[in-house]
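[Solved] Which block belongs to which protein?

Original post:
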Amino acid sequence: MSATVTETTVMPVEPTPTPTPEPEREQPTLTQSQVNALLAEERRKANEKAAREREQSESKAKQDALKEQGEYKSLAEDRAARITELEAETGTIETLTQERDAALSVVADLVKEELKTAPEYVAEAIADRDAVAQLQYLNKNRDKWAQPTVRGGGPLPRPANTEMTRDDIKDKYLRQAGVTRP
């Protein structure tokens, strides 16, 4: 084993330079009146900014209100048109109701006239029905109790299997009501 010795060289270390202090700058000093003036300027700018924002928001609110009001105006016009339509329909309904009432009055008169020739049990049987149902029953079953009459003579027996047509029945009731068909 051989021993070797190595030599180490030491390098000289240079000293670290110390920073040279910069000359101190003088801090600007403000007087109280200058501070107050700066604060007043900042407040004025903040107030102007708030006023602009308030005006913008008020303007937007007015625009939105006008827009909404325009929509309500359109909606109101639509509703007014619908009301006019419904009033016209109401007039039509009233007219139809009057016509219906007049027709029911004629039907009731026809039923009274038919019941004069019908047996009493028929009147009792149909008493709880409305006038139209009564007339339908009387028209359907008339031949069971009605006897045809001849002018100047007594009743004649009705020939078997002879039924009145709808037109015959309508003509009869129209004659009784005083209406003539062309």
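(Second protein starts here: sequence line, then its structure tokens.)
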Amino acid sequence: MKYRYKKNGELEVFQSIWTTRSHTSFVSGLPIREFSVWNFAHVLNKNVYPDQRLNEKNIVLLLPAEHFLLDHGTQKDREVYAQKNQPCDWSLIDNLKDELRSSLRR
């Protein structure tokens, strides 16, 4: 099934990120072999922080399975994934989330 993309500016931001960043997962360093919208994850939830939807600093590259774990997995799910896919460091997401939230308060 092909993903139907809304015309909200995200695709252009994703394409910009794809051309300027290494094609590796932010948390595991594993290679990302092809462009897919499922490889782009918002650190600060775009529904809670709609003004951060197009902020490139708020978007990281992840493998689709990692993106799913970030959005829908439990802490335990992420720990199990990290054990199987070392080195994988989910605290990188937490640290970036804290940094982004802090920058919003300034």
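Accepted answer:
You had them paired correctly. Confirming on the second one: The beta strands are 40-42, 59-61.
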